[in-house]
Amino acid sequence: MKNKREYSHFPLFVNLKDKKIIVVGGGKVALRRIKVIIKFGAKVTVIAPEVKKELELIYHEGKINIIKREYKKGDIKGAYMVIAATDKKSVNEAVAKEARELKILVNTADNKENSDFFFPAIFSDEDIIGGMISNNGNNHSMVKEKAAKIRDFFKKGRITE
Length: 161
Prior knowledge:
Layout (H helix, E strand, L loop, with lengths): L19 E5 L3 H10 L5 E5 L5 H8 L3 E4 L13 E4 L4 H13 L3 E4 L12 E4 L4 E4 L7 H17 L5
Parallel strand pairs: 1-2, 1-4, 2-3, 4-5
Antiparallel strand pairs: 6-7
């Protein structure tokens, strides 16, 4: 049996419980990613001069920490994982560069080639959790559509069209 197909990323489930995760950026992409990782028990610190109102609410619930200022070198030291999600390419690149120097996994929201991992579409029920990406992370709309069908299956016990 010949299988010449190569995949872009290996699906890996990691335990984020009590792991220090730094998110540089406080906008809508940072918010989306934070809402996912806090469900897995991560200890999240957001570094951004300004944050979305919903992040402030999550902070007041005691689920994240916020440092309101620009990122500076050294901010990510000791992190398990880093997410660079600012609207400034130069800042995201600096975060990714430092993460690589410190051997910390990094996801750069604006540049998949500069990311060690992708955020999958997640689906779950009481017993199963899964995630999916498209090969090379190129087709977000297809993944979103298929994940919605799987979520629907978990909810209703069948996939609907």
